[in-house]
Amino acid sequence: MPLDFIRPDIRAMNAYHVARLPADWLKLDAMEVPYTFPTALQNELATALAHTEINRYPNPADSTLPAALRRAFAIPEQAHIALGNGSDELIQFISLLFARAGAKMLVLEPSFVMYRRNAELFGMECIGVPLKSDFSLDLPAVLEAVKTQQPALIFLAYPNNPTGVAFARAEVEAVIAAAQGLVVVDEAYGAFSGDSFLAQAGTPENLLVLRTLSKIGFAGLRLGYAAGAPAVMQELAKILPPYNMNCLSLTAAEFALNHMDVVNQHIDLLKQERKRLFAALQEINGVTVFPSQANFITVRLPDAEAAYQKLCDNKILVKKLHGSHPLLADCLRLTIGTPAQNDAVLSVLAQSAS
Ligand SMILES: *Cc1c(COP(=O)(O)O)cnc(C)c1O
Question: Where in this protein does the record say N6-(pyridoxal phosphate)lysine is found (predicted)?
Fold first, then answer.
């Protein structure tokens, strides 16, 4: 039986669950942007894709995407850039890079579940430091864990998922200063917050900034990137698969970067909606709304399970956080959609509260 030869710890894992939805449902569970390019731009993109040489291996050395990313997001000269098939792939290979025997990974909890998953996959001990109940960072606890455990790798999502809260910048800086190992500042939601560590990428040698195009409208492209100190990035380059990026994604991503005006309009719309949704949620009886710097809002309700069901009854899928961590008791995570979509969510939640 081949199964008998597969690692028992992997056999005991559950696969990452991706919801499959009928077309008439509202999908607000995965921080996808509800907007796409207007038709004229879609047609331009189609032409660009048609002229992409899919008969050739994508040569990373020929790719103009890293330079385009550098321009679009002001990534400093001193940082080297790596591309990943989604930042998920980069999280995986960064974890592999540091997974020496006995190496530890430090994560905050609750945070992005893939950090711990990769620690488990590569046999690293994962140390979870709980956030405070308002989802802010417990700096003394993190610094204590850094000092006593000497983690090889620390993941900080800034802003954090699934809470939406951005930690105080000075606290993240304190963690970077205290750590001997690599600190990955995961800015998947950086476009929605007012702040970034990209400008520092490459200067403290132990800082690596991780970003993605997924949460700004291009989840389907699977395009993540990392910016960090050359010495570290050179090691990472050794273990990335040689052709990990496909040429259609590279073409489409570069097209997107050439139309950042449209992308930024969408981001602005979502930020306006975040403000409106935040205020409206606060008006609903019994709802606690956590301040978000991302394109989702996490709320605590009197009965998250019932509210989740009520949303499902209305063909709206959000993320039920309840049950995944004690600090997330009775919490739901609402991806910000179009004004009409957000109104639909508000109306169901207001009904179930009254
Ligand atoms: C969504 C998300 C990612 C993964 O993004 P991809 O680039 O789509 O793989 C990484 N980190 C955090 C914190 C996320 O929320």
Answer: 215
- The rounded Å distance from CA 64 to ligand 1 centre is 23
Cα–ligand 1 centroid distance for 120 (angstroms) = 18
Domain covering 2-38+260-351, topology: Aspartate Aminotransferase, domain 1 (3.90.1150)
Q: Under CATH, which architecture does the 55-259 domain have?
A: 3-Layer(aba) Sandwich (3.40)
| Ligand 1 atom closest to the CA of 31, numbered from 1 | 1
Ligand 1, from 215, 221, 222, 319: best to mutate by most atoms within 8 Å of Cβ? Answer: 215
Across 232-335, the runs of DSSP E, i.e. the strands, are 288-289, 296-300, 316-317, 319-320, 331-335
Helical segments of 162-241, H only: 169-178, 230-239
pTM of the model: 0.97
What are the average pLDDT values for consecutive 10-residue runs of the chain, which has 354 residues? 92 82 94 98 98 90 89 95 97 98 98 97 97 98 98 98 97 98 98 96 96 98 97 97 94 97 98 98 96 98 97 97 97 98 97 80
Q: Parallel, antiparallel, or unpaired: how do β-strands 319-320 and 223-228 relate?
A: unpaired
